[in-house]
Amino acid sequence: MSLPPNFARAVDLSSLGKPKNANAAPMQGIEVTPQNLTSEILALSRTKPVILICWSDRSAESVEMVSMLGKIESQSAGTWILARVNIDTQPQVAQALQVQSIPFAVALIKEQMVPLFEQNYPEEQVRLVIDKVLALAAEQGIGDAPVEKIEPEEDEALAALEAGDFITAESAYKKLLSRKPNDPFAKLGLAQTQLLIRTEKLDVQNIKAQADSNMGDISLQINAADMAVVTGEIESAFNRLLDFIRSNSGAEKVQAKDHLLILFALVDPTDPRVISARSALANALY
């Protein structure tokens, strides 16, 4: 299995301010030093996956991430271990890990380092990343993979999708989101189902030809972008709407921007194509 690559938009270490009051509440996790990195931390990774987070009290984002990981670890029934590196007090360890920005997190599995992320991220997605780490560790004989819980509404949606009943599937995902508004799988399932509804009766070749001949027609550009996503041409879909946004103004520009954000939700947020397109969108808008 593959883990998400490093997330973008990291904090540049040179931009950090002065350290805050050191008399803060103690943090969860094992404090990493040059002395225990090999003797304790790497040794532990042979029996349980270790999530190692680099932080500084000069970065509020990194402090929040340590706190979040501590909370998740406390609820994990001992399936993984949290370790933390204060880059101010342990610069040798930070240098050994080649830390360029914080928060910076890696997983250690059987003494092998797996990059995770370089920025704060919502708790739901951090939990997903940790689940992937646990699954990867299980594949290597360390611990058990997390048991995937299927919600009843998700079962209903998947059965409807298999039967080609996209409307019922959409309704099921909406019911799940009304009960669990932050469920990432429900959000993705709804976005995918609505894409299927929008494109069900479209012909990919005709739509593309019409859109290419009428670059100023926002409806055709949206339809063509949808079809490009369906056929796996993610970058093409993003570029089509970005080109429209750069060339137009007013309500249609906003419509193209809003639809591009909908398409972003269909792709892993750590995918380089999404990261690049988000940057291009910001430049196009401002």
What features would you describe in this structure?
With 286 residues, the protein is an alpha/beta fold. It has 3 domains: 129 residues, 3-Layer(aba) Sandwich (Glutaredoxin), CATH 3.40.30.10; 48 residues, no CATH class; 82 residues, Serine Threonine Protein Phosphatase 5, Tetratricopeptide repeat (Alpha Horseshoe). It is 55% helix and 10% strand. It contains 12 helices and 7 strands. The protein has a 5-stranded mixed β-sheet with strand order 2-4-3-6-7, with helices on both faces. A two-stranded antiparallel sheet has the order 1-5. α7 crosses α9, α10 packs antiparallel against α11 and α10 packs parallel to α12. The two termini are 38 Å apart.
Count of extended strands: 7
Strand order of the largest sheet: 2-4-3-6-7
Low-confidence runs of at least 5 consecutive residues: 1-15
- CATH architecture heading of the largest domain: 3-Layer(aba) Sandwich
Give the strand content: 5-15%
Structural class: alpha/beta
Number of helices: 12
The biggest beta sheet is recorded as: 5 strands, mixed
Give the CATH superfamily of the largest domain. Glutaredoxin
Alpha-carbon distance between the two ends = 38 Å
Mean pLDDT: 88
Topology of helices and strands:
Blueprint (H helix, E strand, L loop, with lengths): L10 E2 L17 E2 L2 H11 L5 E6 L4 H15 L6 E6 L4 H6 L4 E2 L1 E6 L2 E6 L5 H17 L12 H11 L3 H14 L4 H16 L4 H10 L4 H13 L3 H14 L2 H15 L7 H14 L1
Parallel strand pairs: 2-4, 3-4
Antiparallel strand pairs: 1-5, 3-6, 6-7
